[in-house]
Write a structure and sequence with these properties.
By secondary structure, this protein is of the alpha/beta class. 43% of the residues lie in helices and 15% in strands. The structure holds 2-phosphoglycolic acid.
Length: 260
């Protein structure tokens, strides 16, 4: 655990248009209590970011881009850069399994995006995690190792404090199959061990590490009780204001209960 603050991220993926996003944020704002020990981040469709950036109460929510291109400007038709997103988002997802597996993004792309985010004052949330086949073949540690090295290769120890890591086993994303807490602990221990190897113990301990994959209002507390994790990356359940606000309350309680 990096700090006694928790981070809860809602990834709306390719759901909710501009108008719907705005209405949903409004409903969420009525539901979600502000806690000093919980940072809540919303990642809506790119199209809604600007509208939400004008609407949002930054004490209650911060914003994240689900994706961006790694170059800052130029002839890249259809792309949006981290430079374009400056001042609109505070965070950016990088290397989400849907980017890696549906859009074939490589570790090289991921690395360039981590750099682009940092260069533009946006905190990258680097997602790592193994597929079912890799898990069955006993390759989980190797995959985590390669994705961390691949994503962080150009990041200095000073810059590391800007980075958030999310452990998201691919087989648990959007499938309803939860990773059991002991598996999450093992993966996060591997992540911190690797960070320690790369950056030393102090820097490694300060990095916020999250879990993501089919988290629900019911399962959230089991993960939040783990000493190793600093929060959750939530997909499906973040589209339900009651479920999402329950997860946020559980994050708050997990710290107050003295476990954290
Ligand atoms: P899920 O998505 O909670 O719907 O499994 C998680 C994610 O994609 O980050």
């Amino acid at each position: 655990m990096a700090s006694d603050k928790k981070l809860i991220i809602g990834n709306w993926k390719m759901n909710l248009g501009v108008h719907e996003s705005s209405l949903f944020l409004h409903r969420l704002a009525n539901e979600v209590k502000i806690h000093r020990n919980v940072d809540v981040i919303i990642a809506p469709t790119m199209l809604a970011l600007q509208t939400l950036s004008l609407q949002v109460n930054y004490k209650q929510f911060k914003l994240a881009a689900q994706n961006f291109y790694w170059r800052d400007h130029g002839a890249y038709t259809g792309e949006v850069s981290a430079t374009n997103l400056r001042g609109i988002v505070q965070y950016g997802l990088v290397g989400h399994s849907e980017r890696r597996h549906v859009f074939n993004e490589s570790d090289k792309d991921t690395r360039a995006k981590v750099q682009a985010a940092i260069r533009n004052g946006i905190r990258p949330i680097l997602c790592v995690g193994e597929t079912t086949n890799e898990r069955t073949a006993g390759e989980t540690r190797d995959v985590i190792h390669d994705q961390l090295i691949g994503g962080l290769a150009n990041v200095t120890s000073e810059e590391l404090s800007q980075v958030v890591i999310a452990y998201e086993p691919v087989w648990a994303i959007g499938t309803g199959k939860n990773a059991v807490p002991s598996d999450v602990t093992e993966a996060v221990v591997t992540i911190r061990h690797q960070l320690k190897h790369l950056y030393g113990a102090k820097a490694a301990n300060e990095v916020q590490v999250l879990y993501g994959g089919s988290v629900t209002a019911d399962s959230a507390a089991d993960y939040l009780a783990l000493n190793e994790i600093d929060g959750l990356l939530v997909g499906g359940a973040s589209l339900d204001e009651k479920a999402f606000s329950t997860i946020i309350e559980k994050a708050h309680r997990s710290i107050n209960s003295g476990k954290k």
